[in-house]
């Protein structure tokens, strides 16, 4: 890619998950299904679900603290906090509360919503602030508590989702730009394939004026269409990001996909001719944690020693909107 004066380094990661574990055996007592069917169709064995006392803000704050500590900076060094979530504790946003929890008094904070693509969209958004020289230290968090919006009587969706948070610290780097390339996409024509919709109910204010009040409904998903979309579009967007990075696929050390379904992960790896040992995943233990899935899997791989400084990672998110995107970056 074209060289620029200010590059990006990814210097810290962190993650957090609720204490409660909901495994397939327990799920089978709640809905009509089997452990074998769930695992064979999704690759998921268990997932974490937040209790009534656990909030998205608390999970995100914990993940953020770990990422900040690894990066070696202080919360007061942060210039910007981007929270990617679809399940904020407050409809007006949760990023500012996280800023307060961290004591990041200098940081601007805002929420960003792009569902399961949210972390990647937040990652690329943060990069633009750094590259233009506006900010030097940025915290990007992906966090979701989808258990709040799952219909636990619907076996098509309740087997899929879990709760969690992940975070990274991105910093200005004048010696090397470690964000090598990216590509982001949206297609609103397929919006109805995956929704968490508001359902208004009419409330009359006067004989001639009414408003719609209500709440959000449970997650609705057309699984077959989402699968078809993912296995086609995700390899394409990774190839475009690789082209923008001007590197070949064989230079990729790790493939890091949104953890939605093991069959999707396998299909994308085959399409790109990336061997299984290069595919990062923790889907079996956490399920689909939406915006948290990429940074959660990244943090586990970093802390286990799998990912080392300089490793090239091809990351891709995909989900509701429909939205999808990819980023090619070096760790460290």
TrEMBL record:
<keyword id="KW-0444">Lipid biosynthesis</keyword>
<comment type="subunit">
    <text>Homodimer.</text>
</comment>
<dbReference type="InterPro" id="IPR016039">
    <property type="entry name" value="Thiolase-like"/>
</dbReference>
<dbReference type="InterPro" id="IPR013747">
    <property type="entry name" value="ACP_syn_III_C"/>
</dbReference>
<keyword id="KW-0275">Fatty acid biosynthesis</keyword>
<keyword id="KW-0276">Fatty acid metabolism</keyword>
<dbReference type="Pfam" id="PF08541">
    <property type="entry name" value="ACP_syn_III_C"/>
</dbReference>
<dbReference type="InterPro" id="IPR004655">
    <property type="entry name" value="FabH"/>
</dbReference>
<comment type="function">
    <text>Catalyzes the condensation reaction of fatty acid synthesis by the addition to an acyl acceptor of two carbons from malonyl-ACP. Catalyzes the first condensation reaction which initiates fatty acid synthesis and may therefore play a role in governing the total rate of fatty acid production. Possesses both acetoacetyl-ACP synthase and acetyl transacylase activities. Its substrate specificity determines the biosynthesis of branched-chain and/or straight-chain of fatty acids.</text>
</comment>
<dbReference type="Pfam" id="PF08545">
    <property type="entry name" value="ACP_syn_III"/>
</dbReference>
<comment type="similarity">
    <text>Belongs to the thiolase-like superfamily. FabH family.</text>
</comment>
<feature type="active site">
    <location>
        <position position="116"/>
    </location>
</feature>
<keyword id="KW-0808">Transferase</keyword>
<keyword id="KW-0511">Multifunctional enzyme</keyword>
<keyword id="KW-0443">Lipid metabolism</keyword>
<feature type="domain" description="Beta-ketoacyl-[acyl-carrier-protein] synthase III N-terminal">
    <location>
        <begin position="110"/>
        <end position="188"/>
    </location>
</feature>
<dbReference type="InterPro" id="IPR013751">
    <property type="entry name" value="ACP_syn_III_N"/>
</dbReference>
<comment type="pathway">
    <text>Lipid metabolism; fatty acid biosynthesis.</text>
</comment>
<feature type="domain" description="Beta-ketoacyl-[acyl-carrier-protein] synthase III C-terminal">
    <location>
        <begin position="244"/>
        <end position="331"/>
    </location>
</feature>
<keyword id="KW-0963">Cytoplasm</keyword>
<protein>
    <recommendedName>
        <fullName>Beta-ketoacyl-[acyl-carrier-protein] synthase III</fullName>
        <ecNumber>2.3.1.180</ecNumber>
    </recommendedName>
</protein>
<feature type="region of interest" description="ACP-binding">
    <location>
        <begin position="259"/>
        <end position="263"/>
    </location>
</feature>
<feature type="active site">
    <location>
        <position position="288"/>
    </location>
</feature>
<feature type="active site">
    <location>
        <position position="258"/>
    </location>
</feature>
<keyword id="KW-0012">Acyltransferase</keyword>
């Amino acid at each position: 890619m074209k060289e620029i004066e200010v590059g990006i380094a990814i210097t810290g990661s962190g993650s957090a998950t609720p204490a409660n574990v909901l495994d397939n055996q327990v799920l089978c007592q709640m809905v009509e299904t089997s452990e074998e069917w769930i695992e064979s169709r999704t690759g998921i064995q268990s997932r974490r679900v937040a209790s009534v006392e656990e909030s998205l803000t608390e999970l995100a704050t914990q993940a953020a603290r770990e990422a900040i500590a690894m990066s070696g900076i202080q919360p007061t060094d942060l210039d910007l906090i981007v929270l990617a979530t679809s399940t904020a504790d407050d409809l007006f946003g949760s990023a500012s509360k996280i800023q307060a929890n961290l004591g990041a008094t200098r940081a601007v904070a805002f929420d960003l919503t792009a569902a399961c693509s949210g972390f990647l969209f937040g990652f690329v958004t943060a990069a633009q602030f750094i590259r233009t020289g506006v900010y030097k230290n940025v915290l990007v968090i992906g966090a979701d508590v989808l258990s709040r919006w799952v219909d636990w009587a619907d076996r098509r969706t309740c087997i899929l989702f879990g709760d969690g948070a992940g975070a990274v610290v991105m910093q200005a780097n004048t010696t090397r730009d470690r964000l090598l390339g990216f590509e982001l996409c949206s297609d609103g024509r397929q919006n109805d394939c995956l929704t968490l919709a508001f359902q208004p109910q009419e409330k009359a204010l006067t004989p001639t004026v009414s408003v719609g009040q209500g709440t959000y409904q449970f997650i609705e998903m057309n699984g077959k269409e989402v699968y078809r979309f993912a296995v086609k579009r995700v390899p394409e967007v990774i190839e475009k990001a690789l082209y923008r990075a001007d590197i070949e696929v064989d230079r990729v050390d790790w493939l890091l996909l949104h953890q939605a379904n093991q069959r999707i992960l396998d299909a994308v790896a085959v399409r790109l001719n990336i061997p299984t040992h290069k595919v990062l995943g923790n889907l079996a233990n956490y399920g689909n944690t939406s915006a948290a899935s990429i940074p959660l899997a990244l943090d586990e791989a970093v802390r286990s020693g799998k990912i080392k400084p300089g490793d090239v990672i091809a990351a891709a998110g995909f989900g509701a909107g429909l939205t999808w995107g990819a980023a090619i970056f070096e760790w460290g």
